[in-house]
Write a structure and sequence with these properties.
It contains 6 helices and 11 strands. With 241 residues, the protein is an alpha+beta fold.
Length: 241
């Protein structure tokens, strides 16, 4: 497997509250993107704490030949542990109250692609037909959309479009969504924060990815988001066969 990752502060924010990390485990790959939220440095602290805890817990429980049940349990437990630490940290310091972070993680072995997520950072699968969103956004506007209360074109202009319904560290317990896909030849997975997906359409992202070599893809996608105003931190990881 090959992969690239990058994060950029964008053109408007004063600090980068996103973090991305990719590591190999006996040839398998774990990639995680976190997008923090909270005042002052709290969002940055939340994403840093969460991503460090996810990798720490995953590493301590990792075994080379895990089956699907074991992978699901380990990924879920790792994100749950991160949730507990961020939640506790937020309540130990009044300046950190309300901090939290999104978390989207992918683990890829020789047979399957496993994805877990909380919040609105996304995982996509790319094939010859386009870019396909795997995860479901845990946002207020997506809830309204699924209930038929707003139209798709209203999602990006709704006044509560940035409100999350689920995040790491906000509630005492969080249950991540979990997905499993069979690993096909020539697969490509994209993880990203909403600094990319929130300002660029799936077709625009696909157009860049389909025409760009992997080693240039991070910069090309960040440039795409910057061309739309760069109003948020931009973070991504791309993993391919």
């Amino acid at each position: 497997m090959k992969y690239v990752s990058e994060t950029d502060i964008g053109l408007v924010r004063e600090e980068n509250q996103d973090i991305v990390r990719v590591e190999e485990y006996y040839g398998n790959v774990l990639a995680v993107v976190c997008d923090g939220m909270g005042g002052e440095r709290s969002g940055q602290d939340a994403s840093r704490i969460a991503i460090n805890e996810v990798f720490s817990r995953f590493s301590s429980g990792f075994e080379p030949q895990m089956d699907t049940i074991s992978v699901r349990q380990l990924m879920t437990a790792s994100i749950s542990a991160a949730n507990s630490i961020v939640y506790t940290t937020a309540r130990m310091n009044y300046r950190s109250f309300g901090m939290g972070t999104t978390c989207v993680a992918v683990y890829i072995d020789d047979k399957y692609i496993y994805i877990a997520n909380v919040g609105d950072s996304r995982a996509y699968y790319m094939d010859s037909t386009g870019l396909h969103q795997i995860t479901t956004d845990h946002t207020f506007v997506n809830l309204l959309l699924m209930q038929g209360k707003i139209e798709p074109e209203e999602v990006h202009t709704h006044p509560k479009r940035n409100m999350l319904t689920k995040a790491v560290g906000v509630e005492r317990v969080v249950v991540p969504d979990f997905f499993r896909m069979k690993r096909e030849k020539n697969f490509t997975i994209l993880l990203c924060s909403d600094g990319l997906s929130g300002y660029c359409s799936d077709s625009e992202i696909y157009d860049v990815m389909s025409k760009t070599p992997l080693e240039e893809m991070s910069k090309a996608l960040i440039d795409l988001a910057l061309s739309k105003g760069g109003r948020d931190n931009i973070t991504l990881a791309v993993i391919t066969d």
